[in-house]
Design brief:
By secondary structure, the protein is an alpha/beta fold. It is built from twelve helices and 29 strands. The longest helix has 19 residues. It is globular.
Amino acid sequence: MKIFRYFVMGLFFLYVQTAAAGVDPISWSISSGSIPANTSIGTIYLVQYTFKSNFPFTMPTSLNVSTQSSSTSEFLFGDSCSNTKLGPGGTCNVSVSFSPKSSGSKTASLTLSYGGSTVTLPQIQTTVAPSFGGRASNWTGIIGVDYNPNHYVSGSTLNSHDVFYANTANGSAITNTYAEMSQLKAAGYQVIRSYQTLEYAWIDIINQANALGLKVVYEASIPQNGSSADITNAVNVLNNVITAVGTNTFNNTVMLVLAGHENYSNTDINYLTSAVNQLQAATIVPVSSALVSGDIVTPGSVGDMTALINSYTPSAPIGFDPYPFQWGVSPYDQAATNPTLTNSIAWDYANVQMQSFYQNSRTILMAESGWATQGTGQYANYFCYIQGDCAPGIANAATYLTALYSFVNTLSNNSAALVFEAYDEPAKDAGNPNDAENHYGVFDQDCNLKNNNTSLLPATSYSTNTNNGCQGFAMGTTFSVVGTQAGATTNQPPFTVQVTQTNPETSQTASYTATVPNADRTNTNINPWPQYLVYNGASVTITGQTSGASCTVPITVNNAVITFGALTCTNPSYLITCSGSNCFLPGNNF
């Protein structure tokens, strides 16, 4: 037997040597399916490879399959070859499934080894198209986050203006919105939904998301039981935003327009469908709305829900806000996935899918869902507070969100989620700091990941050391450079503002140079004078692009109050004045 075994091994290695010369004794072919060069979110692709042994005897050593991919959450491998010894003419299969969840270039590769030889298959390369308005898109598998820029401590001046210059990235001045959304992207969120209604905030959020390769859910202000005037105002705001960012940027960045939020009542269905229709007339981006969970899970009026959902753009998801936390669903690790637990996510989805108005071509989007990390539901009258089993906590939130991400990543659930929320909002109920409404953030108000617990995030590989977000911002304050003290709003010359400073919390440089173009600032909801974040000890230089003259002023910050030091100017004909929290340009020829 040993002699025969040695004989077979000798033949085996002879075949392996032959393979090295160009004749491979293990051949492969694609037996079914393909992963094309161009793919799209919401479709599952599958390719199967069949390997065949050309040895005249059973292989004395086993096969081994190794795999690599650019995204372990999108590529899955099925392997019946590894640890197998194929007989003469025997075959085995390796399958690759691809379920894209984000746009961009994606790759995967397979290598089969046996003895001293390897078979390397051609690399799978595919480009996933972005999912955006103007084309059919499937929301299934998307994980985003709800984001409010005004998340700083109660009384902070940073809450009085949604957007301000804060730092430098990639050689350019960036705003707080860019800094924070960059952190959220690193945390694994693909989509940002905000709940701002002023045009200038939406303009910056969309522009910065576009620069970062993120998508946006735009929310129009359609109040419950509102009027036609409210709809007209919301359409005007939307038109202003589209004009400011440009139609292409809007269409390529905004995935969805929501006609308000949690705004259904049994007296306003015609008002809501009219709002949807008028917003649809203003943009090619899909339009729908988001409801409280009971409206579609256990609807009081199936007819109203049918009318509302039928008014949505066909490619838009059905949005609702399920909160197992507020209902006291337990155990926490099953609050997303157990359909037998009343008010769990799986229970909600099962009930929605049984409704006559449900269309399985639509993704069911959780426009808000989260778990408070501290506080009680007393002030918001949560059901869990009434029955006494609210269970806030970082560990419980991480357990719930981990299960929620798994639920969404199971594409057969036809779900998507926007996590509520990115950052704590201590000013939301400033009079009741223990209100759970203040504590839903996966990050605190200073952009620190809570307990450094990456299980709160879709990207558990997130690095807390390299993504500072807004850390330290609240230790500074904002000031502005505006037109003359007479209040000029138009025909101001372009100028630059150079701020030299250090972030006192991170000890990192927080210097930046921002160029401000000439702009009509008559409507400050669209074009307010920019705000600049400054720390104690900052030095600010303001330079006119027309005259070339400049003035430099040191700044002291104490309890958010600015004191300007003595100005040093290069040309006495162009003297800037500073007072309060503003510096004023010397004139239109500066």
